[in-house]
Amino acid sequence: MSTWQPFLSLSSEQAPYPTKRGLMATLFLLTVGLSGCGAPEARDEPEAVPQAPSLSAPLAADCTDPSCPSLIYRTYVPLLRNTQGTGTGLPGAGWYTPLVIQNTDTVNSALVLLEAVPMAGIGTSRSTTAQAAIPPGGSVVFRPDNPTGLPGVVGIPAVATGNFQGSMVIHSDRHIAVTATLSNAPISSTLGTAGGRAKGAFSATRDEDFEGPVEVNYAPVKSGFFGRATRLFLQSTNRDVNTTVTATLRRELDGQDFTVSLTLAPLASAVLDPTDFRRNGIPFPTACNPIPSEARACLAALHLTSSDRLGAVAVEVPTQETVPSVVMMNRLSSGELDYWKLACPTVKKQFPAGSGISTAIALMNVAPVPQTVDARLEGTLEPVTPATGHEYWQVFTDVPSLRSVVASSFQDSLGLLPDATVSSATLTAQSGGDLVAAAVEEGGGRLASYSCIPVTRGRHHVAIPAAKFEFPSRTDAFAANTGITVQSVGPAPTSVTMTYRCRTASSGTFTPYVVQRPIGPYESRVFSPFNITTIPSGSLCTVLIDSSSENIVATANESSESLPSSTQDSASFEGVWMNN
Fold it and tell me: Which residues are CB-neighbours of 149 under 8 A, at least 6 positions away?
């Protein structure tokens, strides 16, 4: 039995697994569906460079407090849970939030201080902290149950005592990237609940992600819509003064507005349910007639303004399951400008063939006037291997202000994209007003979502904090694979270099592997355990993506597809942009 329990697994004693990567290629068409994995390609040999140092280096003695002058960067996690019982805003019991924290500096170690803050903030309850040093390009894992003696894992005792609800601020002396996961799967005696298999993920928000006016927009917000509801988790980023928030839900059925206002104490967090929003004293409805035309009364678009910057995440949960089997999450952008063109790296229509796995894109017009939006779907992965000249168009005319439309195969609005096709999408507002969009992938009893990425956020360098290769082992009940989709947002061909830094379940030392692929203009490329065969099974990796010439964006999808003992939900998240 392994002596190291990874952040999303409690391994049981198992027979050794002989790696048979050759068999994985033949399973590809059946397993690519939610893992986002691409076709098998030629082997990529690892780059022979020295291994990074282990995670055992101590944090500087003068950096044990958030006021430490060398900790100049802040990253915000709006939702941090370790609830052995029930909690606020989430159905059922056993929810917990592990994190993967990546040092994106490949030369210097990073010092990080993790500050867990109760929902009430720092005014009435003292925050608690933990410290870690991260090697160049490496990562550290935060587990809410605070296991001891495990390489590369850190915890906070006050969070591990059970029923913690709040948020986290991560202070660092280097640029970092953070991915948070929300799950109820039972991976230890204190994490999860019996029968739980839900899993969602989101990228944390950094100080450098904020710009422009402080507002948050998102669609769709659901309230009993076919058994689903959306909860909004908000986090104050100001540790000195209160933050005031005003939020509006604009109902899709008739454009009526429902509003709510609240005040957050310094570093406090809060949960908003659709029923907290009211119109003339009447709350937003919690159930609707399931006839499609009337069900839109339980759908809305969110527009929120605040006196200061917010961390925010939307969580969609089932409302009719005692033990939720799925959960979907989207990080919500706060105060961002010039978002008239969005990139959605992965859009599927019945892929693999007959699987029922498809992507729907919820597109919201944030501009104050109606806009016409062009959706171009580039079928560059059709059917699996790269091909050119496969463009499909859908035009959404005069989308009302603060309202949304949906591009999906169910509404025949994916521009005649053929079945059994994977594509990338580019959404463009003809008049140049701002847009937001979320891509939702559903099918096979799994649910995942990511936010489409503004082209203005494209960079030559993107970070992915967590990529799994049958981690922690192929036969572990909570093992996963990660597929990464990289989309070029430039007009010329580019070459992409993926630098994976990986460790196994028993080691805290990272080994680098390098993979290179060409990408055509505006096209996408998939990198996964199905087409990268040199990275060992049982690896947990960080990834730095470098483009030779054009700006790129990226998303990651973690799935249990192809793993015989795992039946977990899927989780997607956006790559973290880095300055060129």
Answer: none
